[in-house]
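Problem 3 from the worked examples.
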Amino acid sequence: MQRPTGRWIAGRLAHALSVVALSFALACASSAPLPPPAPLPAAGEIFLVDPMEGYPLTAAEDLSERLRWGFRELLAGDLEGAAAVAEALRGRDPGFHPASVLAAQVALVEKRAAEAQHLLERVVDELPGYVAAQLVLGHAAEIRGEVLAAFDAYRAVAAAHPAAAERAAELRPRALDVLANRFDDALARGRLEDAAAALARLEAWAPEDRRTLESAWRLAAARGDRAAERSVLERLASREPERREVLERLAELDLEEGRFQLGIARLEALVERYPADRELAGLLERAKFLWRLENLPPAVRQLADAPQLSRAELATLLYWLVPEVRVVTVDNPPIATDIIDHPRHDEIVRVVSLGLLEVDETVHRFAPDRPVTRAQVLAALLTLLVRSGEPLACLEGVRDLDLRSSRSLTCRTAARCGLLEEEGDCLPAAPVSGAEALELFRALDHLSAS
C-alpha cells in the first residue's frame, strides 16, 4: 500500500482546519459582533431580504441565528463567508429552506442567475408564499428574460411585499402578452393540451381580461365543448352586451340546444339593429323554421336525422311542413295497392292527389319505401312554388307538368330560384338525407316569404 505523501497530508490538514474554523465561527455567531452592512447595487438590494422573511415553517433557534449571521456577511460584502454559511447549513439540514435562499442570494449577487433560479424552484413549489425565496427567484428569472416565471414569482407574494407588488404590476402586461401569444401558437398548431395549459395560467392571472375570455371561447369551440363555450360567451355578453358575434353564436347555441324562443329573440334584436344584413335575416328565418320543426310530432322530427329519405318519408314532410298539403280535400284518392295499410297512408294520399309525387299507373304502386331522389324533392317543391302564384322571375315560363317530366329543367330552375347554389349541385338521381331535405324546405320558405 502506497504511503500518503507530505503534500496530501498537508492538504487534508488544511481542509480539516477550515472546517473547524467555520464551525467555530457559526457556533460563536450569536456572541460575535455583526459585520457592518455595505450597500449593494440598487438593482438588487430590495430583493435581498432576511432569508427567514415569510418562511412559514418553524426553525431551530441556532439554525436561524447562524443563517442571519451569513446574511449579514452577504450584506457586508463577504460573499465567500455567506456562501460557506449557506453550504454548512444545507449540509447539516438539507430541508432547511432558508439556507437555500441564502445560497441563491449569493449566486444572484455574483451574477449567477440561472443557479439562483435552480436553487429555489423546488423551494417555492413546496412553499409558494415564501417571500424571501420568491423575491430572489423572480429577480433571477427577470434577469434571464423569463417574463412568465418572474411575474409568477412576484405575483405569489405581491400582497406581502411592496417590491414584489411593484414588479408584478410592471411585468403584468408583458406576461399576459407572452402567454396569450403562447396560447395562440398552440391552438394554431392543434396542440390543445398546451393551449389549455396556457389558458389555465391566463385564468389564474387575469380571469376577467378580455384576452382570457376570448382564449377560453376559442379553446371551447376547438374542443366542441358547447357547455364551456356557452359559459364563456355569457360572460363576454355581460361585458359587451352589444357585441354582434357573441350574440350570434349564443343564438346558434340556443337553437342547437332547443332553446328556440331565446335564440329567436336574440336574432330578432340583431335583425332590428342590422336591418340590411341578409345573412342575419337568413339566420332568423332558419331559427323560425327549426322552431316549427320542434312543434311537429316526434316521429316527424326524427326524419331530420334520417341518412336517406324514402318516398313515404318525403310525403310525410310535405304533409307536415306545407299547410296546403295538409288541408287538401281528396275526392278521388289514387289507387295504389302498396299504401293501403301503410302507416303514412293519409300523408301519401294527399301528396299524390296534388301531383307532388306520382303513382305508377301501370302497376298501381307508389313504392313508399324506395329512396326518394333529389330530382323528385326539387320537382315537388318547385311545383308548390309555381302553384303559389309567387311572381318570381326564376319561374317565368315554367309549368309544373314540365318539372315532373324534365330533370334538366328541374335542376336549372332550382338553381335559378336559389334552392341550389348552382346547377351542377343538382345530382338528380342521388338520394336525399333528412337534413338536406329540410334545408330545401327552408329555402322554399324563404322564397315564399320574399
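Problem 4, a separate protein:
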Amino acid sequence: MKELINALISIFTRVVTSIFIFTSIYLVAFVGFSASFDIFDILFILLIGFLSAVFYIPFLVDKSISKTKMLIMEIVYFLIINTIVLVIGNFSGWFCFTQIASFIAFEGVIVAVYAFVLFISYKVDSNTANELNKKLHNRNK
C-alpha cells in the first residue's frame, strides 16, 4: 500500500510540476511576462494532477501486463487525461473550441506535458531497474 501511495504522489508531483513548467513557457512566449495564474487556475491544475494519479492506478495494480495491453492502456489513459484537461480547460477559459489556434496550442501543451511526464517516468524506472540489476549482479559474485 505504501508503494502505491508513493507512486501516486510521484505521478501527481510530476504532472503538476510539468504543467506549471510548460504552461509558464507557453504563457511567456504567447502572452508575455504580464501573464499570471489565479487561484482557480492553480486549483484546476492540482485537480488535473490528482485525476492523472487516480486514473493511473490500473497501471500500478496489475504487475503482469503484456506489451500490447500496456500500449492499449496508455492510449486509453491519454484519451481520458486529454478529455479531462480539455473539459477543465474549456470550463476555466484557458482556451476556446471555436478558436482553432488556441485549441491547437492548448492541445500541444497537453501532449508536451504528457510526453515529458512519460519520459521522466521512463528514465526514473530505467535507472531504478539498472540499480537493482547492479545490486543483483554484485550479490551473485
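Solution to problem 4. The radius of gyration is 18 Å. The mean pLDDT is 89.
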